[in-house]
């Protein structure tokens, strides 16, 4: 498997929260060769099913596939677009950014702002407000209205860039990197014997409502859930106790949102497979799909694997491709270790 090409395909596709259809289609094409069945539920989640040898138990792998972005809130007579944000976006990074307006046809644009020449000395030191920013597509009002309406999503537009030392930068690596890792896990499982049925779910709307994780947990009713998401890579401004080295480790979360016994078993498998990890202390809700899955139905034992990413929620998120591979390997080996005595092992 060319995991770099998988990651490039996923991260280059568009799929804002509640507008995920484009990237879901790409994900289906990529994971289908390693699945026994594919379906979409009423919420829109894409599920890839892989039959286990025994089929008495079920394990869910959940990775959210949506991304943050913008949404058109106004169309001005001069052809400029006003917008609101979808998900956690820092307005300070937006001026000058390239975007794609996802109307009836995709229209490239740039985000403009008030030139510094027309700002007061006091205003130059302040961050822009949303009212100071706009999207310029180059089209006039009449032509723009034929393709764009209020509520049209707008995505970051960036190149998938290969850096040095196996690092790559792109938009939406949170959480397309984990989606690529799940595809890699399903690929690895084709070479392993596993007793449990596997449900790999690309979940929707994690960035805002966590709808996909909640419904995935309910619909699959698994005996165990493995959630994969992004976490903070070490960089200037990220505290050392909250950031992780993107070159060397995954993280395994511990806290009240995660099942302690299942987490210890995951750590044991990582050590057996010589996959480096660090504990990510999660004292409250994890802010991931694990939050909704854990309390679904009668309660679902849940573990969380995270991939460190620099420049979170920007158009240049950065990851080491080894994190994707190792997360996929760890997930597959963990699933292959599961048997009918899992409840005793998790105690």
From TrEMBL:
InterPro entries: Peptidase_M42, Peptidase_M42_aminopept, Peptidase_M42_dom2
Domain of life: Bacteria
The family this protein is said to belong to: Belongs to the peptidase M42 family.
Residues that coordinate or bind Zn(2+) 2: 174, 207, 313
Biological process annotations from GO: proteolysis
Protein name (database record): M42 family peptidase
Active site: 206
Gene3D superfamilies in the record: Peptidase M42, domain 2 (2.40.30.40), Zn peptidases (3.40.630.10)
Reported cofactor(s): a divalent metal cation
Keywords: Aminopeptidase, Hydrolase, Metal-binding, Protease
UniProt xrefs under Pfam families: Peptidase_M42
């Amino acid at each position: 498997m060319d995991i770099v090409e998988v990651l490039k395909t996923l991260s280059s596709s568009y799929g804002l929260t509640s507008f995920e259809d484009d990237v879901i289609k790409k994900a289906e094409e990529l994971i289908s060769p390693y699945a026994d069945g594919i379906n979409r539920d009423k919420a829109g989640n894409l599920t890839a099913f892989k039959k286990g040898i025994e089929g008495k138990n079920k394990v869910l792998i959940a990775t959210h596939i949506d991304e943050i972005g913008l949404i058109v809130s106004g169309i001005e007579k001069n052809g400029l677009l006003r917008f609101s944000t979808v998900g956690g976006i820092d307005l300070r990074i937006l001026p000058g950014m390239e975007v794609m307006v996802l109307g009836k046809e995709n229209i490239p644009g740039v985000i403009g702002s008030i030139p510094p020449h027309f700002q007061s000395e006091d205003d130059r030191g302040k961050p822009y407000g949303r009212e100071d920013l706009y999207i310029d597509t180059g089209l006039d009002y009449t032509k723009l209205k034929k393709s764009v309406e209020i509520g049209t999503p707008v995505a970051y537009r960036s190149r998938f860039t290969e850096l040095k030392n196996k690092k790559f930068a792109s938009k939406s690596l949170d959480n397309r990197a984990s989606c690529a890792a799940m595809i890699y896990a399903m690929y690895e499982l084709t070479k392993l014997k596993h007793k449990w049925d596997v449900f790999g779910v690309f979940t929707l709307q994690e960035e805002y409502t966590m709808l996909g994780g909640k419904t995935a947990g309910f619909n699959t009713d698994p005996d165990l859930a493995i959630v994969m998401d992004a976490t903070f890579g070490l960089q200037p401004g990220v505290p050392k106790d909250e950031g992780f080295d993107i070159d060397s480790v995954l993280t395994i979360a511990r806290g009240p949102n995660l099942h302690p016994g299942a987490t210890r078993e995951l750590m044991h498998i990582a050590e057996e497979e010589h996959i480096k990890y660090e504990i990510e202390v999660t004292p409250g809700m994890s802010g991931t799909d694990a939050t909704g899955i854990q309390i679904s139905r009668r309660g679902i034992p849940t573990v969380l694997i995270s991939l460190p990413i620099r420049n979170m929620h920007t158009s240049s998120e950065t990851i080491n491709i080894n994190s994707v591979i190792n997360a996929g390997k760890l997930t597959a080996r963990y699933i292959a270790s599961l048997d009918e005595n899992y409840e005793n092992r998790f105690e």
